Amino acid sequence: MERNTYRFILEKAQECLWNYPLRPPMVEPLPILNAQNRVLGEDLFAPYSLPPFDRSPLDGYALLGEDSLGASKKNPKVLTVVDRIPAGHIGRRELQAGECARIFTGAPIPLGANAVLRQEDTESAGETVRLLSEVTPGANISRAGEDVSAGEPILTRGTMIGPAELALLAALGVDPVPCYARPKVGILSTGDEIVALTSPLTPGKIFNSNMYLLAGYVSRDGGEPVLLGSVHDKVELIQARIQEGLAQADLIITTGGVSVGDYDVVKEVHHELGAKGLFTKLDIKPGTPMTASGLGEKLFIGLSGNPGAAAVTYELTVRTLLRNWAGRKDGQLSKVRARLTESFSKISNQRRFLRGRIEWVEGEYRLSFTGKQNPGVMKSLLDCNCLVEVPAQKRLLSDDWVEAILL
C-alpha cells in the first residue's frame, strides 16, 4: 500500500485496514444460552426433521377421512372412540375403519388415521363421537419435516444468533453451539489530562470517557474490549502499556497523541515497537490525525483524542474491520439517499462527515443534524444513527438530497 505522509484518502485507508491479515478467531463451543448475540462459527445442518413426526395442529379426532364422507349436522356419522392421545404420547394401536382417536394439539397422528376433524365439528357421546362435518384425507395434519427437513442447511457461518436462532437450535437439540471467539481489542487513552473515573477531577483534568466510548463500539461490533486505562504522553509509558495489551489482544486502539504537537508521540511508539506504518492522517474532518501501523498479525490504530472525531473515524474504518474479523456478515457500510431538513453552511478544504439522524417520513428518508459538529463534542453522538458526507469546498442546503451512511 502506497504511503502518503500528508493525507491518506479515506477509501484507501479503509481498504488497507479491512484487508489487513489479522489472526482469524478460533471457533469455540458455547452453551446454548451463552450463544445469544454471538457469531456462528460453522454451517449447521438439521440433525432431525421439524416436526419429527406427523402431528395434529389442533384438538379433535384422528380418523380415516373416508369415514366422514357425507357427515353433517343433519346427518351425523358416528365413530367409536378407541384411543386418547395427548401431546407427548403415541397411539396404542392402529385405527380401523369406523374407529377414531381423541387427539390433542401436538400429539402424533396414530397409525391408520389420515385426517383430523376439529373438536368444534363433533359431539362427544361417551365411547362414540358424532361427526357433524366432513374432513378430507390429509386435512389438519402437520407433516413431519414441513418446517425443517433432516439434513437441510439451517444456519450459515457468520449468522448473528438471536432469539429466533436460539429457538431453532434448541428445537433441533443443538447444544453446545459452535461460535467464533470474540476478537480481543486493547483500548488505551493517552494524555496527561486524563484521569480514571475513580480519581478526583482536579483542575485541568478530564475523565477517561474515550475508553468507554470505544469499549461500547467494540462490544457492539463483536469484539471483547481489553481496557488498558490511560497513560501520560511519554513514549516509554505508552509503549509499555501497549506491550501489556499485546499479550492479550491482536488489535490495539489508542486515542490521543496522533496530531503534530510536542506530546503527540503515538506514531513514534509504533515505530519503537517495530511496526510498519500503514498510513498517517486522513483526508477527512473530523479525525484527520488518524494513524495505523502493522506488526505481523498485530495491528495498531491511533485515533484522535477528541471523542467526536474518534467516533466518526471508528465508524468509518474500524467498525467494518472488526465486524469482518469477528466473522459477521454485516460489516459493510450501508448507504441510503435522504433529504436534508436543515442546512450546513460551513465550508472546509477537506471532506467532512457530519453526525445526523435519519428517519423514514412520508415515503422518504429525511435527515437532520444531531447538534454541534465540533470534534470534541460528545452530545451529538447520542441520537446519531448516520453520517453524511460534505464534499470539500461545498455547503449543504435544506432540501438537498445527500447520501447517508447508516450506523
From TrEMBL:
Pfam families: MoCF_biosynth, MoeA_C, MoeA_N. SUPFAM superfamilies: MoeA C-terminal domain-like, MoeA N-terminal region -like, Molybdenum cofactor biosynthesis proteins. InterPro entries: MoaB/Mog-like_dom_sf, MoaB/Mog_dom, MoeA-like, MoeA_C_domain_IV, MoeA_C_domain_IV_sf, MoeA_linker/N, MoeA_linker/N_sf. GO terms for molecular function: metal ion binding; molybdopterin molybdotransferase activity. Its cofactor is Mg(2+). It is an enzyme of class 2 (transferase). Keywords: Magnesium, Metal-binding, Molybdenum, Molybdenum cofactor biosynthesis, Transferase. Coiled coil: none annotated. GO terms for cellular component: cytosol. Residues 186-324 form the MoaB/Mog domain. Its EC number is 2.10.1.1. One of its GO terms (biological process) is Mo-molybdopterin cofactor biosynthetic process. It comes from the Bacteria. Pathway: Cofactor biosynthesis; molybdopterin biosynthesis. It catalyses: adenylyl-molybdopterin + molybdate = Mo-molybdopterin + AMP + H(+). SMART domains: MoCF_biosynth (SM00852). Belongs to the MoeA family. Catalyzes the insertion of molybdate into adenylated molybdopterin with the concomitant release of AMP. This is Molybdopterin molybdenumtransferase. It comes from Heliobacterium mobile.
